[in-house]
């Protein structure tokens, strides 16, 4: 029931002239904001995040979005399920909260877990890619992970199906099955037989 340390995980990667951002969960809005407004951000990996933020940048104001408390349910084990609490940012009245990622010309990777119970990451990933496509951008890739929960844990990290959520102030369901979080990719590609293949994430 411990909170996964990845809940606050954000990493800045620097190689040559470019800067990359690897973000998960709440840090995704910060990563998208940096990619949209700052120069030199060459690539942004967004993992199970959203595309809304309360942000003031120069003359731009992005409004916050209010969770719908009535949409909080309970899992069969009695733990809070908050997946539907964050409203759809593309609905009327919420569009002012969306980060204008179309301002960026650099690369985005949107990775979403299909059993994310923290919020609807797949919907947000699809909306982010649709927004870029609508503005004539092709600088993105979307990857979905079946049966995986909110935290796509790094290798050898235990699966975190639930934990304390600092914003909610309660233990919530993060979702996913342990097997879906096993690192089959590394078992498959680190045996020396498939060195030429590239990782998605």
From TrEMBL:
Species assigned in the record: Hucho hucho (huchen)
Pfam families associated with the record: BAAT_C (PF08840)
Protein's GO biological process: acyl-CoA metabolic process; fatty acid metabolic process
Highest taxon in the source lineage: Eukaryota
Classification via SUPFAM superfamilies: alpha/beta-Hydrolases (SSF53474)
Domain BAAT/Acyl-CoA thioester hydrolase C-terminal: 14-182
Name of the protein in question: BAAT/Acyl-CoA thioester hydrolase C-terminal domain-containing protein
Molecular-function GO terms, alphabetical: fatty acyl-CoA hydrolase activity
């Amino acid at each position: 029931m411990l909170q996964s340390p990845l809940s606050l995980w954000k990493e800045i990667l620097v190689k040559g002239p470019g800067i990359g951002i690897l973000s998960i969960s709440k840090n995704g809005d910060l990563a998208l904001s940096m990619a949209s407004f700052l120069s030199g951000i060459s690539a942004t990996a967004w993992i199970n995040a959203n595309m809304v933020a309360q942000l003031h940048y120069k003359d731009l104001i992005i409004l916050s979005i209010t969770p719908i408390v009535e949409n909080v349910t309970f899992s069969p084990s009695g733990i809070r399920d908050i997946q539907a609490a964050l409203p759809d940012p593309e609905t009327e009245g919420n569009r002012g909260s969306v980060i204008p990622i179309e301002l960026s010309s650099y690369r985005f990777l949107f990775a979403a877990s299909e059993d994310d119970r923290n919020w609807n990451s797949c919907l947000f990933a699809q909306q982010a890619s649709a927004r870029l496509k609508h503005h004539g951008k092709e600088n993105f890739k979307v990857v979905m992970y079946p049966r995986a929960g909110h935290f796509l844990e790094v290798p050898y990290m235990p699966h975190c199906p639930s934990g304390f959520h600092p914003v909610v102030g309660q233990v919530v369901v993060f979702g996913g099955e342990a097997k879906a979080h096993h690192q089959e990719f590394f078992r498959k590609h680190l045996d020396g037989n498939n060195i030429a293949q590239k990782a998605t994430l």
